[in-house]
Amino acid sequence: MSNKSYHIHQAALLMRSQHTAVLSTHSVSMQGYPFGSVMPFLMTEEGNLVVYASDIAQHSRNMKKHNKVSLCIYDGRQSDSQASARITVLGNAEVDTVDDPLQDQYMAIFPQAKSYVQAHDFRFYLISTERVRYIGGFGEIYWFSLDDWQSHMFSLAKSAQGAIEHMHQDHSDALALIVAQQLKRPIKQGQVTMLSCYQHGFHYSCTTDSASGEVTSHIGFICFKQPITKDHGLRHAMVLLTQEAKKSVEAQQRQNQNDQQ
Fold this sequence. Notes:
This protein is an alpha+beta fold. It has two domains: 3-151, Pnp Oxidase, Chain A (Roll); 160-260, PNP-oxidase-like (Split barrel-like, Alpha-Beta Barrel). It contains seven helices and eleven strands. It has helices at residues 3-17, 58-65, 100-109, 146-151, 160-170, 172-183, 234-260, and strands at residues 20-26, 34-40, 42-43, 49-54, 68-74, 86-95, 122-137, 140-145, 192-194, 201-209, 215-223. Strands 1, 2, 3, 4, 5, 6, 7 and 8 form an eight-stranded antiparallel sheet that branches. Strands 9-10-11 form a three-stranded antiparallel sheet. The radius of gyration is 20 Å and the shape is globular. The mean pLDDT is 90. Residues 161-240 form the DUF2470 domain.
């Protein structure tokens, strides 16, 4: 993997693992000023972005008047925001251009948005990426052209659904192990639902029982060890995650045995 390919991969991983961005639009009411809004987003397999916004929102009015926008995504888990990775996507927003399968995918990742369907005239916007700015940390600053960005995107559209069904039917135990390692707590078989599958990893939903007896649901994203390409298949990617999770469980079991001796 070349240096550029590595950083494009890291940028895409950041966008997959984070689900909220700052959307900047051109203000209609304050001409010449940018207007920032916190916005959930989903990245498509082509490297474009999907957002869901109400017609009465200021950013929606702004996008309809001037469709050139940017989304800034960063890793909010890091204590030093200046040293952590972040990415800014510049693109053109178009309303009502998101197809039904992509809308369904968005709703799976953001189930709370289903309650907005009948409220305040929410509509989908597709932000077509034009250029990407990625900062991996101090001294790691890159611009990616549209060709650079799109040439590193690989679609799993034809195989994703079949792979998800296969994991649910035959490998629900492996899914539980993989998510348990991610969350650092025990997960029972059958508690994990695979929501998506992209070249960089997959979204999942995990249900757990709280101390009060209430069932809660957590949605997250697990990264593959390396991006899937024509030379690196989905099956192999899932096998690597499963093997790592099993090794982690075995190591913990050995540690527990040593502690008991």
